[in-house]
Design a protein that fits this description.
heterodimer, A: 13 helices, 77% helix, 1% strand, flat
Chain lengths: 314, 297
């Protein structure tokens, strides 16, 4: 048991290390001099040499990677070459906005998707189930950024019910929340479908199990069976799925933040990419990757804790 | 006829064509599958025939007719440069399908090869390939795409590279697990015992067992690729203007969303129809071909 935990965590760390090295080599093996990209083609040779030294570009690539990982391990993501500001500060200023967005999105999706899945499972093969099925697949299929654009078009431009851009005036909580509604809607819509289908499938599976049959044989009311015996078990894969899918959530947050001109890590990366601000690109992609690996690892561990069968498969 | 020894009829397998027709029938019987098939055929026909169907040259600028609502001359209206949105949507569909077919095809070939290598190769090779796959998958796709765009600059090729690199691990993993499961199956051992070579085993026994599920998986990835292409082009990181793409149409439309809703509506609908069509079709294909998932309690 502990061995499995140890192995899984080690694998997570290894993945992060390989991912960081891949990212670093990718950025530094591109044709074109990163220094010239930063300074422009007309910078003096002295200045170029100075920046090159500062960015540690004179070392061979593996040494650079090890040094970079060493710095990151100490919690230093480097410095934004344009603004001369620590990338840490820049990234962690933006990160909360993305986290709120993702939480709000997944939150409303759970509130709607899980009951929808329950209904489908309880009334399986009925008309409700059929409609819920088609709705779920449709929600999954429509890309987030199209949902975002259409919701701007409908609720902000045409109906003028909700603001289209920004994250509020930065003072009142109410304005922040009002600005969160449409982005959270866009991020969560696909998840309503995912969750509904997943909950339906796992509920049907649990409903076929012996302990549920026994409960039914005891004559327990259907409501007790569904909530106490079925849903409690069926909800577990859902929780781990969410942990596994933080990457998808972050990806949809990028589009949503750009469409709604919201601050956040997605927008940060986008802006850094368009201005070729390598340190910020590295830092923010790194933070999201770590976030992703940590959450999948935790999801795996929780899974193993709950279901001992999974512990042996590594 | 009497006295002739005939091959027993029961050993005759139905031809591939019959299997195909049979499964098509089962797909169409489901409302979801029928809907998906209709949408996919519709999208394919309009993309293939884009050149003949489009009433205008998709990049022809006519400033005097800019931002028009739908009318008899321009079915879906015009954009900010007076270009006919309908023609641009058609040609954009061609590009979206081209990108998805090429990149999924290449990813399939590479993923299949790497998966076979991982499945048959020595343990250390298997482990390092798996670690590499996991690491590549650990970047959220869009973040990875943005990082790649920083390096190679925005273009259709970049979009395809992103798709290929992110899809290879998925296909590779699947092929690997199938190969591992089959490698020591009795019929393979028997084949090996009668002296079959490595390539015969792979070609005759492993591949046919792997390709079916792989193709279904790939068909379900088409909406994903179309979303990536449209999404990156929307961000200005895919197709370069003036080439039409559903993403760039949406982006242009978004800039003028307070002037006219039509370009956004016209750019979004084909994306929605295509992803819906392929998802519906993929779902019912999977149900038909994978009876394990069909079980309903």
């Amino acid at each position: 048991m502990w061995l499995y935990f140890f192995k899984r965590v080690l694998l997570g760390v290894l993945i992060v290390l390989v991912a960081v090295s891949l990212l670093y080599s990718m950025i530094h093996l591109v044709p074109g001099d990163p220094v010239k990209t930063v300074l422009g083609p007309r910078a003096s040779p002295e200045l170029q040499a100075q920046i090159r030294e500062k960015m540690g570009l004179n070392d061979p690539l593996p040494v650079q990677i090890v040094k970079f990982i060493g710095r990151v391990a100490q919690g230093d993501l480097g410095e934004d070459v344009f603004k001369r500001k620590s990338v840490n500060i820049i990234v962690f200023e933006q990160l909360p906005h993305t986290i709120y967005l993702v939480l709000a999105g997944i939150g409303w999706a759970m509130l709607v998707g899980i009951p929808l899945g329950c209904l489908s499972a309880i009334y399986r093969n009925s008309i409700i189930d059929r409609i819920a099925g088609i709705l779920s697949v449709s929600c999954i299929a429509i890309p987030t950024f199209v949902v975002a654009l259409y919701s701007v078009l409908v609720f902000a431009v045409t109906l003028k019910w909700l603001p289209a851009i920004g994250a509020g005036d930065g003072e009142s909580l109410r304005s922040y929340l009002v600005h969160l509604i449409l982005p959270a809607f866009a991020v969560g819509l696909g998840w309503v479908g995912y969750l509904a289908r997943l909950v339906r499938a796992s509920m049907l599976e649990v409903m076929g199990e012996n302990h549920v049959r026994t409960a039914r044989a005891f004559g327990l009311p259907e409501r007790t069976i569904v909530f106490k015996y079925v849903l409690r078990l069926a909800i577990l894969p859902t929780i781990t799925l969410i942990g596994m899918s933080i990457g998808i959530l972050l990806s949809s947050a990028v589009f949503t933040e750009i469409v709604f001109a919201r601050p956040g890590i997605g927008r940060l990366i986008y802006d850094a990419v368009t201005s070729r601000n390598y340190p910020v690109v590295m830092g923010s992609v790194l933070v999201t990757t770590v976030l992703f690996v940590v959450s999948t690892t935790i999801a795996d561990l929780v899974n193993a804790l709950v279901d001992p069968r999974l512990r042996t498969d590594k | 006829m009497s006295g002739d020894l005939e091959m027993p009829k029961a050993t005759q397998m139905p031809g591939t064509w019959q299997i195909f027709l049979g499964s098509l029938k089962r797909v169409v019987r489901e409302p979801l599958g029928a809907m998906g098939l209709v949408l996919v055929v519709f999208v394919l026909v309009s993309a293939l025939g884009a050149t003949w169907l489009s009433p205008y040259e998709p990049n022809k600028i006519d400033i005097k007719a800019k931002l028009q609502p739908p009318s008899a001359e321009h079915i879906l209206g015009t954009d900010q440069l007076g270009r006919d949105t309908f023609s641009r949507v058609l040609v954009g569909g061609q590009i979206a399908l081209k990108v998805s077919l090429i990149s999924i095809g290449l990813a399939l070939i590479i993923g299949l090869t790497l998966g076979l290598i991982a499945g048959f190769g020595p343990r250390w090779l298997d482990n390092s390939l798996m670690l590499l796959f996991d690491s590549v998958r650990s970047f959220p796709t869009v973040m990875f795409a943005l990082a790649v765009v920083t390096l190679f600059g925005p273009s259709l090729t970049t979009v395809m590279i992103v798709v290929i690199v992110t899809q290879i691990p998925i296909y590779g993993r699947m092929v690997r697990s199938q190969t591992l499961a089959l490698k020591d199956a009795e019929f393979i051992l028997a084949e090996r015992a009668i002296g079959a070579g490595f390539f015969r085993i792979i070609g005759m026994h492993i591949l046919p067992n792997v390709v079916g599920p792989l193709l279904i998986l790939a068909s379900m990835d088409i909406p994903f690729v179309i979303t990536i292409e449209a999404g990156l082009s929307f961000l200005g990181m895919g197709v370069r203007p003036p080439t039409p793409s559903w993403g760039t149409i949406l982006n242009d439309g978004y800039s003028y969303i307070y002037n006219t809703p039509w370009p956004v509506i016209a750019g979004g609908i084909p994306v929605i129809l295509t992803t819906l069509g392929f998802t519906f079709l993929g779902e019912s294909l999977r149900d038909v071909f994978d009876p394990k998932l069909r079980k309903e309690i």
